[in-house]
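Notes taken during the Thursday session

The instructor put the following on the board and asked us to keep it in front of us for the whole hour. The protein is Steroid receptor RNA activator 1. We were told not to look anything up and to reason only from what is written here. First, the residues (187 in total):
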Amino acid sequence: MSEGYKPYTPGWNDPPSYSFEDTVSAQQENRPKIFNRIPARILPNSQTFQSNLDKSQVPPDYNTNSLENSDDVSENPAVSLSNVYSIPVEERLSYVMESLSNSIQKSSLPESKKIDICKRLSRLETSWKDSQFTDIVQQKTIALVKAIEINDYIEANKLQMALMVDHTRQCNTWIPAIRQLINQILE
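Then, after some discussion, the predicted structure tokens were revealed:
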């Protein structure tokens, strides 16, 4: 009855799957292969069509390599991958927990909020010890902690949102605590 497994190719009206971070790798993974099904139309190369184009109508060439507002994680010194990898794997969890607990103690949050944040961060520690985090989540968490350490709260806010949106299942129990910490400092 069944003919076996057939790979699913999304249709034209299927909702796209986006990544919160606007990186090339995230876009390439989720990009549908629609050009496999649609034949390309070939326009005739005519001289009249070419002569009708005025130079003012042709869009200028933009250099995409020199974007000034790049969201590339590797360009930001606070969250560069070399900084993340400079911490040995065995010491990453202790670094994250110590840095976050220091940030909590320095904050002006009420004691009840501090206790709640510490409880949520204990879930982070438990999940990390149980190897429930992918390497990407660990790297982004370390980058988030480093951004908080150097008081780059705008970058920390971006990293927190990216973790919450892209890795919800792994982060939904503890990331609101970091959100509270960042929001308190931003106010």
